[in-house]
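Today's session is about reading a structure prediction critically. Students often jump straight to the picture, but the first step is always the sequence itself: look for stretches that repeat, for charged clusters, for runs of hydrophobic residues. Only then move on to the predicted structure, which in these notes is written as discrete structure tokens rather than atom positions. Here is the chain we will use throughout the hour.
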Amino acid sequence: MGRTRTYEWQDPSITAAAVGHASGLDLLREMLAGRLPAPPIAGTLDFTLDEVDEGRAVFSMTPGEEHYNPIGSVHGGVYATLLDSAAGCAVQSTLPPGMGYTSLDLTVKFLKRITVDTGTVRAIGTIVSRGRQTALAEVRLLDTKDRLLAHATSSCMLFPVPNSAT
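Below is the predicted structure for this chain, in token form.
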């Protein structure tokens, strides 16, 4: 018998239009408060932004079968997406109005297998350094007992956002 999953998302152009008009931290706080929609990928993979502060972002996800690879554990791309989101938002939380970012690279170390039995996992992203053109963030993926499941670093390019308020 097949399994199904239904999810929904809001128009991503709403949040995209707000990028550059507020600080990165304010934008993320508006998303956290539900006043701006989360990006569609959050609905697709069923993860949430749980905490944000300057230089720090925390996402969580409860693994399900829909995240599995052919060998019966969570696909590495799901880990990577969660880690990339936490790293990018840690960087975004430090940006002033009128600035954006994009990932230049993501280096992931998968340390433990994740299954539905793992329970909720948390990706905790923190900024390591930020210059004028690039930033570096690191992320730890932890289970409910704070065991390290994966680790990542990400370099991001910083740039002025076209048509921003500044």
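Discussion point for the tutorial: The chain has four helices and six strands.
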